[in-house]
Amino acid sequence: MNLALRCVVLGLILSLPGCAYLASFGSHLPETIEHQIAAGEYGKALATLKWIKPDHPDYARLMQLQAEARRKAAALEKRTLREAARQEKQGQWYRAQKTYEQALERIPDSEPLQAAYSAFLERRQRYLRKLELALLMNRANWLIQNAPIRTEVARVLPEDYRRYPALRDYDKQVHKTARGLDRCLQEALDEHRPKLLEACLELRLKLDPEHRDAELIAAARKALARYRARERRQENDATRALITELKQGYSHDNLLRARQLLDRIADTPAEDATSRELRAELERYFRQGIEQGIAAGRKLYSRGDVPGALEIWQSLAKIDPDNEKLLDHIQRAQRVLKKLERLSREGAEVTPPNNRDEGRGTSGE
Q: Are 78 and 72 in contact (CB under 8 A)?
């Protein structure tokens, strides 16, 4: 064989998974594969077996071993995905990492494991970043709370307060934390995260109002204003749609959604007249719906259907639990039912109440 041909052959060999390719020519290959499978080295076994040709003297046995290795590799893959997911759900991040890595050592070419492990690392990184931001905000809050003490020390030592060790450390922490909040602002802007942007901006302005990146602060404020305007539009659209639905008729579902929307928007100030008017209108229709339900229960109650009335009122109480009128009706109906049950046990004649019997002292009954 001339030199050029040798170089070509050598290049072809080197371009293949060398060890697995060469191992496929071993004289004791079945025993080697059996040993690898027994040791759980399914990747090594399969990497070697893929080079086996039909003319191999142990071809039939090797194909049986290949099927066994694939079956066990698939079982390991499934078991690993299930176990790692369970460990991650329980917050056992390090154990989940080791579970993935140990399995990948045995079946390194498993695409499902590679994809799952990559996704796991991304989730862990996001979680770690969440913890880092929590530490940053806690430190910022601590520094803000202690700012008056720092100011008082500087007042007591106006000439040489900067030589005071505790103040030097405090000022360094302020500077470091302010830079961290700047990174938080940029991250929130880049990732379009309005809640994070709002939290970091508020802390940044309180922590170091005199030394700040004017351009970054301006960008954060502008973006936050856009987010708030969009949220107001979405809130107003949802409120209008629900008001329209309530006007067409009241149901347990739309009253519950009205209550949930009112609770959700109660924590945010209505910054414009339109939002204030829509909130007031939604509250008005919600109250009308509750009153209509109470009246429907009273109608059943007056006919002697106390259980039916109680069912309506208890359903409404789940939506409007602080409604005193509603709670009074429920308590009265429960007392009546207990009385009727007692009389029934005693063999007395049972007559369901009506407004004249049980509604005295209650307006509207």
A: no
d(CA 180, CA 223): 19
What global pTM score does this model have?
A: 0.66
Best CA proximity match to 310, nearest among 344, 339, 335: 335
| pLDDT for residue 2 | 47
Question: Which is more confidently placed, 24 or 117?
Answer: 117
On the question of pLDDT at 172 being above 50, the answer is yes
CA atoms within 13 A on the CB side of 78: 6
Q: Count CB neighbours of 125 within 10 A.
A: 10
In Å, what is the CA distance from 352 to each residue of 181, 302, 303, 306, 335? 68, 9, 8, 8, 12
